[in-house]
Amino acid sequence: MSDFQPADSFRSPRFAQPATFMRLPQTRDYAQLDVALLGIPFDGGTSYRPGPRFGPRDIRQHSSLIRPYNPSLKVSPFEVVRVADVGDVDVNPVNIEDTYGRVERAVGDILAANVIPVCVGGDHSLSLPILRAVAAQHGPVGMVHIDSHQDMWEEYFGNKYFHGTPFRRAIEEKLLDTRRVVQIGIRGPVYAETDFDFGRKHGVRTITAEQVAHEGLAWVKEQILTLRRGPVYVSFDIDGVDPAFAPGTGTPEVGGLTSREALELVRALVGVQLVGADVVEVSPPYDHAGITSMLAANILFEMLSVIAATRLQTQETKPHKGKA
Ligand code: MN
Ligand code: MN
């Protein structure tokens, strides 16, 4: 077993010690890792309720309760992959383009060490610089995007970069293989039917929240599994989940996924070659009793479990670097 284990809760109570993610060790020595948990506390791209800058800290706080074995996927992720909390990107709170540069460099450093970045936002504008780094390493990637919004608008108040545009920019910049992009949970009022034109024109598959309800999770999982061939990025906007389960977010839309559906959708990614992930748009100031942060922390745990379960499945255990 590697050194990268959560603190043992039989020796140190779960509410004790500084709150790294799941109380994992903190390091920036990427050579020792398979997966890096990276916080990005930036919300300069929000358009309505702010607050996701406080997401990484609050999600870490609420991750302390999570126990290390995943009985749904039958995997102990930390026995399979070496995961550490690598801290936060020091963003520029008043400059989105400067922040983009900082994020792209931080994620690029992680990828260059052959480590999978699992990012904790922060608002959804951050997926663009993450994808820039991911595509620089892997070429255009497939994507599973869980969200109530497509985030493919053209601009906002004359600005190309905010949390409603990252995937339009990503497609324009050819960071995504649009034949292998699925959006799940899309719903809610928009400005006009033409808002959907960009995604349609580029062949992006969009599964609405109503389709999830009517066609069922098994059908949605089949759609996800069509992405198996080639690298895939996962972007999870917490507002894909219904505000009844995730009220702590900036632009809530009613009629969304349940928290159980959200967890099952992430688990459906076992067998997919994940090259990066994010969980974004958690806004602790609008949360109640930590339920949104708790869900986000568990979604991150499921992502780590999926990476581990996939690695077990494919038997591609990376040789240990640095440490014996
Ligand atoms: Mn959204
Ligand atoms: Mn979004």
From TrEMBL:
The keyword Zinc-finger is annotated on this UniProt entry: no
Cofactor: binding comment: Binds 2 manganese ions per subunit.
EC nos: 3.5.3.11
Binding residues annotated for Mn(2+) 2, in chain numbering: H124
InterPro entries, per database record: Agmatinase-rel, Ureohydrolase, Ureohydrolase_dom_sf, Ureohydrolase_Mn_BS
EC category: hydrolase
Source organism superkingdom: Bacteria
SUPFAM superfamilies noted in UniProt: Arginase/deacetylase
GO BP term, pick one: putrescine biosynthetic process from arginine, via agmatine
MF GO annotations: agmatinase activity; metal ion binding
Positions bound to Mn(2+) 1: D147, H149, D151, D237, D239
Cofactor(s) needed for function: Mn(2+)
Family: Belongs to the arginase family. Agmatinase subfamily.
Name the record gives this protein: Agmatinase
Lineage, top ranks: Bacteria, Bacillati, Candidatus Sysuimicrobiota, Candidatus Sysuimicrobiia, Candidatus Sysuimicrobiales
